[in-house]
Amino acid sequence: LILQEDGPVARLIKEGIRNGELRQEDAEYFQTFSSPCYGGLIYFNCPEAPYDLNTVDADAVTAIVLKCRQAALRIHQFMKKHVGGFENSTISSFAAVPGIREGRRIEGEFLLTAEDYSNRLRADDAVAQTGYPVDVHGYVNDHMGARPMGPGEYMEVPYRCMIPQKVDNLLVAGRCVSTTFVVQSAIRIQLVCRALGEAAGIASAMSCDSGIPVSQIAGAEVREKMIAKGATFQDR
């Protein structure tokens, strides 16, 4: 992260913190990227808000939104003053909601762990695959007990991860499926969440057609229907 680096941008931001123009938390994570479609428009994927947060509490989320917008204003004023090309810049918009990476997760029939990630789990009822790295901010070079993925390697996400232990006839998709904290950071990406959402929809339709509870639907059959509809599974 920016404060762990020693390039010209990092040195400039550290000086901004020392003179009070920025706060330490403003630069814990500092990322920008431009759009080839819109000249002169730059996106800032920051600041980060690594605070204790109850993500299902509306007041807590609102407080984080306000905190981050105040930080964004400080960053913008700093850029206008110290970085060439930003002298006449304006903020066109803020994110409507914070990018919350994690909230609650279910306790499912199968729990994906760092060991599963390290062993590149294969499952008969797999409905998604991922080769995404463990992505926990603040641990840039640390997979937190999980062996990093190499080229062409991947792990599978079983259908059972979407089935809660204590709720009947319910499927949960996306970042809330049954995983540990570490593995959740590698399966919360859009492609995996979309695959799990498609699997949940197909399984629900199969349940309605057959009268069989979703917990008894065969994940392998769900995957075959996904493939029939155009999904691609590596080595399947």
Overall description:
With 236 residues, the protein is mainly alpha-helical. Helix content is 33%, strand content 6%. It has helices spanning 8-18, 58-82, 114-118, 181-187, 190-210, 219-228; strands at residues 32-34, 42-44, 126-130, 155-158. A two-stranded antiparallel sheet has the order 1-2. It has a two-stranded antiparallel ribbon with strand order 3-4. The model has no long low-confidence stretch (mean pLDDT 90).
SSE blueprint:
Layout: H1 8-18, E1 32-34, E2 42-44, H2 58-82, H3 114-118, E3 126-130, E4 155-158, H4 181-187, H5 190-210, H6 219-228
Antiparallel strand pairs: 1-2, 3-4
Characterize the overall form. elongated
Q: In percent terms, what proportion of residues is strand? A: 5-15%
Largest sheet: 2 strands, antiparallel
The SSE order reads HEEHHEEHHH
How would you concisely characterize the structure shown here?
The chain is elongated and about 65 Å long. The chain is built from six helices and four strands. β1 and β2 (42-44) form a beta hairpin.
Keywords:
mainly alpha; elongated; two-stranded antiparallel ribbon; 4 strands; 6 helices; 236 residues
